[in-house]
Specification:
This protein starts with 20 loop residues before the first helix and ends in a 15-residue tail after the last helix. Helix 6 (310-322) packs across helix 12 (457-474) and helix 12 (457-474) packs antiparallel against helix 13. The chain has five domains: 1-33, no CATH class; 40-157, 2-Layer Sandwich (Uridine Diphospho-n-acetylenolpyruvylglucosamine Reductase, domain 2), CATH 3.30.43; 165-293, Uridine Diphospho-n-acetylenolpyruvylglucosamine Reductase, domain 3 (2-Layer Sandwich), CATH 3.30.465.10; 297-533, 3-Layer(aba) Sandwich (Vanillyl-alcohol Oxidase, Chain A, domain 3), CATH 3.40.462.10; 535-592, Vanillyl-alcohol Oxidase, Chain A, domain 4, CATH 1.10.45.10. The chain is 29% helix and 16% strand. A hairpin with a 4-residue loop joins strand 5 (165-169) and strand 6. It is of the alpha+beta class. It contains 16 helices and 20 strands. The chain is globular and about 70 Å long. The longest helix has 20 residues, at 502-521. It binds adenosine-5'-diphosphate. Adenosine-5'-diphosphate is lined by residues 134-140, 146, 158, 179, 207-208, 210-212, 214-215, 283-284, 566, 569. Residues 134-140, 146, 158, 179, 207-208, 210-212, 214-215, 283-284, 566, 569 line the site of adenosine-5'-diphosphate.
Length: 607
């Protein structure tokens, strides 16, 4: 089946570079060939109104916003909802819906063209008491996409008209971007200008450079911590005021931007940037980023034969990472992942309805380049050839202590092997390969469970055991990817479910609930989560009678007294909503699967 061509970068700010057009087409055709749900179904409800807002007030508010932004820049969300796919994603709802498709929806979408227009939207929201929800590109797939937490919020889609690379400074090796600049767009511009820099991108290149950093996403070059490598922000506060952080707070000469805005992060006084990440305290309209100088690089793969090697591998990584011998944040994946990154459906490997049994994974992996192994490590070293050779000698020697480990370079595996796409991502080239595992199930969607543990075998094993047991209990294949740094590791599992099946959704939601609770009872917490689980995760950070949440609420209420900006994001509810039934705790997510609203009963939020 040939589907309609996905948009290219020359057609749309959110499109794919022409170098990837054929790959994108192939990925789309393959995904759509497994789709059994219709493109859209008729809406059950009309426009989902903001809470506590009558249709008359809403219509009046929309008319007034249209006057400020232009009629065409405020669009009602009243058409059938289309989930689309990664490159043609909706800004109307969560394409990977867990609860009803019409639950995490906006009432309308506003498209500002400038910071001034963002300020106008914020003032408008305060006037009408209508919640707004800013997104940059909305490709936060697995964490809620572009959906607002409060149904009926107005999504502020910043990316469509604010997508300029405002500055690239070759001397300072930095850039300043607006929300709609994707990794694809930044990479292509740097290539076009033949600048000697790399960017750092996550597994998929279509996300917003700014949006991903604000949500504290990660990539895989030595500059993989995106928020740590930003420098300077311009933010519209919930009262409409404009703020520059860092050195940007000091006016440059004759009204120019401060010359050290992208050079020195903290400036003077409290370092405030952090409170604008994973929060609902402001709308980020510009952000500076440091770029990495291009360098030699060598990606490689190591395999380990036994499931029980897990703790020894983690123990071997720790000193290497702490001494700075590992070039980037390497990934350690269970061999089950080798099956799903081929892009072949689960049915190709196993016909049963239950999770693939370990012996079947073993048999199938034996036919793949990785062979019959249990864990696969993907790393990259940087520098000139001589230094890479020295680094690799040390690394090979450290891992050789684990019996049966094997080392592979890209030349040792076929051209379509995943290692080649790792080599691109780990040298700052944004690609699309990671979409492949969405072919695992028909209508595949996914949730991430992303706890942090110390880089210590014992801790990693506790979280792994919880995952093994609970994935089995709820009938899901376990796909762990561990991003291992010197002192902590992100243990990320990818829960893949069929979005046409309420039963799978309910089980996926129950699995998330239990994973969050059990990990927390052992002292491990998530670094990021889907919108629907934000309340549960936020409440696990409860030390000293929820001191951290009370602190966040104090800031929220001071900055946003009317509670208009992204209420509920990261579990932070403004006073107006707090304790009134909005929080999704206990089994409320799984109970909402299949139709029940996530809004409190007494809010007149449906027409
Ligand atoms: P991406 O396309 O990179 O995944 P998103 O636009 O989906 O990024 O952003 C991820 C999340 O971060 C959004 O859901 C939103 O809550 C928040 N966010 C994104 N951009 C901004 C911004 N410019 N200002 C404030 N919050 C933002």
């Amino acid at each position: 089946m040939k589907t309609q061509a996905p948009p290219t970068l020359s057609e749309s700010y959110s499109g794919v570079p022409s170098r990837l057009a054929a790959i994108a087409q192939e990925a789309k055709d393959r995904l759509y060939s497994h789709k059994t749900v219709p493109e859209s179904v008729p809406r059950q409800h009309n426009v989902r109104l903001p809470p506590d807002t009558s249709r008359e007030t809403f219509d009046e508010a929309v008319a007034s916003l249209r006057q400020a932004l232009g009629h065409e820049n405020v669009v009602l969300n009243d058409k059938p909802l289309v989930d689309g796919w990664y490159l043609e994603h909706p800004n109307t709802h969560d394409a990977f819906h867990v609860v009803d498709q019409e639950e995490l929806v906006c009432s309308a979408i506003a498209y500002p063209a400038s910071t001034t227009e963002v300020q106008a939207i914020v003032k408008w929201a305060n006037n009408y008491g209508i919640p707004i929800y800013p997104i940059s590109m909305g490709r936060n797939v697995g964490y809620g996409g572009s959906a607002p937490r409060v149904p009926g919020s107005v999504v502020v889609d910043l990316g469509k008209r604010m997508n300029k690379i405002l500055k690239t400074d070759a001397d300072n090796a930095s850039c300043v971007v607006e929300p709609g600049v994707s990794y694809f767009a930044l990479y292509e511009e740097i290539q076009r200008r033949k600048l000697p820099f790399w960017i750092d991108c996550p597994d998929l290149g279509g996300g917003s450079v700014l949006g991903n950093a604000v949500d504290r996403g990660v990539g895989y070059t030595p500059m993989g911590d995106h928020f740590a490598n930003h420098c300077g922000m311009e933010i519209v506060l919930p009262n409409g005021e404009l703020l520059r952080t860092g050195m940007g707070a000091l006016p440059g000469k004759n009204g120019a931007d401060n010359p050290t805005w992208q050079s020195f992060q903290p400036a003077y006084g409290p370092y405030s940037d952090g409170i604008f990440s994973q929060s609902n305290f402001g709308i980020v309209c510009q952000m500076g980023f440091w770029l990495m100088h291009e360098t030699g690089h060598q990606s490689y793969m190591l395999t380990f034969p036994r499931d029980e090697d897990f703790t020894d591998i983690v123990e071997a990584i720790r000193p290497l990472a702490q001494k700075g011998l590992l070039g980037n944040i390497p990934q350690l994946r269970h061999v089950a992942q080798e099956l799903n990154v081929t892009g072949l459906p689960k049915s190709h490997w196993y016909s049963g309805p239950d999770p693939i049994p370990r012996d079947v994974i073993r048999k199938q992996a034996a036919q793949l380049p990785c062979g019959d192994c249990s864990w696969v490590f993907y790393g990259t070293q940087y520098g000139d050839a001589a230094s890479i050779k020295t680094q690799l000698d040390i690394i090979k020697s450290a891992f050789s202590k684990i019996k049966g480990s094997k080392f592979y370079l890209p030349n040792d595996v076929p051209p379509d092997h995943y290692l080649h796409s790792r080599a691109l991502v780990c040298s700052g080239v944004p690609v699309l390969r990671e979409l492949d595992w969405l072919n695992w199930k028909p209508n595949a969607a996914h949730l991430f469970f992303s706890p942090i543990t110390p880089t210590r075998g014992e801790d990693a094993q506790i979280v792994h055991n919880i995952n093994v047991r609970l994935h089995k209990k709820y009938g899901f294949d376990l796909f762990p990817t561990l991003c291992v740094a010197g002192r902590e590791m992100h243990y990320i599992t990818n829960i893949i479910y069929d979005r046409s099946s309420d039963d799978e959704k309910r089980r996926a939601a129950a699995l998330m609930r239990e994973l969050i609770a059990e990990a927390a009872s052992e002292g491990y917490g998530e670094y990021r989560t889907h919108l629907l689980f934000a309340d549960q995760v936020a409440r696990t950070y409860s030390w000293n009678n929820n001191a951290l949440m009370r602190f966040n609420e104090t800031i929220k209420d001071a900055l946003d007294p009317n509670g208009i900006l992204a209420p509920g994001r990261n579990g932070i509810w403004p006073k107006k909503y707090r304790g009134k039934g909005w929080e999704l705790l206990g089994d409320s997510v799984e109970k909402a699967v299949g139709g029940r609203t996530i809004s409190p009963d007494k809010v007149p939020s449906k027409l």
